[in-house]
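Entry 14. Ran structure prediction on the chain below.
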Amino acid sequence: MNKRDYFLMCMNTDTYMYRDWVISAFSVVDPRPHITEVTYPYQIIYDPVDPEGLFFAKPEGSGYVSVRIEGVKHDHPLYGAKEGVDIVAGDLPLQHDNVNTTYGIMLGNMYLLYYPFGNKFKFHNGVITNDFEQRLTVMLSDNIPGRVGEQPDRIYVHEFEKYGEACGALAGYDKLFASSGSLKALTVDPAVIELRDRLIEENKHQLFDRRVQAEIEEQVVAADKASFKGDPAEDFLITGKSFNPTRKKQLIMIGGSAGFGGDDGGSASFIPTSLRDGWRVEDIPVHANEARAGSFFRGKETALGGADVKNGTRMGMNSKIDSDYCGTKIGLPTTITSSNSKKFYGLYAVGKSDPILIDENNVQQFIDRPIMVHSPAHCISKGDAYCKTCIGKTWSLLVHGVNNTITNIGDVFMYDKMKRMHGKALKTATFHFLSHIS
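Output, structure tokens:
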């Protein structure tokens, strides 16, 4: 049997659910079990008849027989996660069309889509992102006793629990599919250092300007990211902080350093070298101020956010939600953009006749044009009460939803100060006045 057909057979017989099988299929295991040591059907084994080949244990009668997997060797992984393969409709138990995909994507689909949900979702030929979990939250419903009458367009708690199990199982394969180390991960491409030196020389009279510092850092970090294309560690360094500030400061340049900065009487500094290059004596005060500032903001200024949370709790402790819609036709003027659209999901836009719930299906019609969004500030419910429309769908699901929205403001301040301890990237952003004041 060829390796493709063997893989599809394992997908259709639930063999993929065995951790031992996944590790054996995508890596080199030595020694592999003998036919007399088989613990589950279709397990990958070796046969002394051909020590150089790979075999699997096919159930037959009350035992197993050894079947050769053609075209593979015992000292090579049977499959690569990014190895391409063509499948046709019906090859997998999960519904799909004829498609060119990879063995890794097929395994991910079987774990995250088929195992929890059966055929409620079609095969996804790519990375399953956070957007999928947003869909799940919209589709989630309580369990139905006896599971009689479950709808194909809804997700139930027992299915969501299986999805959590599948995510936990895949997390156990992180070292198998995402290499955390490579030669490139320990070094930096000389071309990135050349770019750094050239940009610093071209802007040597403007290095005091935070915008120039940010532009230089943005270009060298982008070049560093691009250098990892095709490297084994490419799938491990997936967060922005892996490159900026971590790799940037460690291997390329410290760059802009605000210290206490701004109103605290400090000033922004710029260090063109990296930690790998060593500390220059003249830069020691800058390093010291940056370390002290991170500790100070985390230790002292987080208390300001905590105080705001406590004040918000006291302010909103008597608030309640008393109706679905108070009837107001006034809202908060704002502009939804492609970059901030997700934060408006669950809020209501002021419509000509009735409020319009903003979600992933209709958000495009509101992007880049001024609209009014229902807000607690414009709710006309009596006394300490608010309506579900002005609060928004998400927060109004909670009995004390109003109180949570108020305390969330202090949470933002506290979180921002806490992050200072772990390093922050210097970046520029476009200021949209209407969006920011709303």
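DSSP finds 15 helices and 15 strands in the chain. Will compare against last week's run tomorrow.
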